[in-house]
Amino acid sequence: MPPRPPNRFHPPCPSRLPRGAALLLGAALALSQTACSETPPPRGPEPSFESQWQDGKAELDGYRYEVTRYGERRSGRCVMIFVTEPFSESLRVKVDDPSKHPGDVFEALKLNFVRQFQTGIYDYNTMVSVFTRSADFSPAKITLSSAEWCGSVYGELIFRPGAIASSLRSYFEGESGVDTLAWAEGGVAEDDLYILLRGLRGPYLAPGARKSVPFLPSPFVARLTHRPIAWTTAEIGRADRDERVLVPAGSFRADRYTIRVAGGREGRVWVERDAPHRIIRWAWSPPPDPPTRMGADACDAGELAGSARLPYWRLHDPGQERYLRQLGLSVPRGR
Q1: The pTM is what?
Q2: Nearest-5° angle of CA 17, CA 22, CA 24?
Q3: In whole angstroms, what is the distance from residue 117 CA to residue 68 CA?
């Protein structure tokens, strides 16, 4: 990733100043450093989920991004898109007119996790879509689409009581098919963590707390490591205090979560301390002894570069590429 900007919160010490000016500046520096190190003030009242997420807009978060592919570190482009929408219980698709069958509709909080990165001459374009029930953020559907110069892959997980229907369509021989996974009580899907850890209806864990859960790895990880999706276990813990995190978008107080997956893969996620509790940074490291040749792939990392709340589905006209700058992303030349 590009080098981080210098720390703006600890200015250099003065030199060769008159004694009176030096004393005054020294006192000011001491007060500044005390303000940075003291216990942060208590949070104000949290906005309700409804007031934040039913405003007719989406939250768009752009990231500086890296991922391991074919054993090499690659730079890329990443966006997380969070938005609520009406969703069909029976069809598991977005509903055009909720009033037609209101008993079949629930509100979904959706995350579209878009990753793009180059591997030598050709590029990867992937998206994981996570559809959760906004009442409790339990997953209803997770999909993966992946396109690169070798071909396309589409995978789908449909979560129903007691079971998960899995399907995959791949250009690789022997990978396509359908399957059923048993639902693990208390289980957590990896992609749902980027919603759960935000604590949009209350903290996921108390400071210093940890818990072990059945864990379903991301289809993105399964795709790049060429392994089938199967339940494993993970320990999820929250640091006992928040910390200052400096990323391209600025400086934030953030809560750090650590995810230790059976087999040795480990992730860390920093969540903005104050509302709207955005994902400020994340980083995954591979297991110490990967089980396959590509077992260390798909370990990615991102740092928040910019964020905006926008009705992005309306911003499709020439010239509206300029909104990418709000996400810290480059605009195509000539736009």
Answers
A1: 0.86
A2: 145
A3: 10
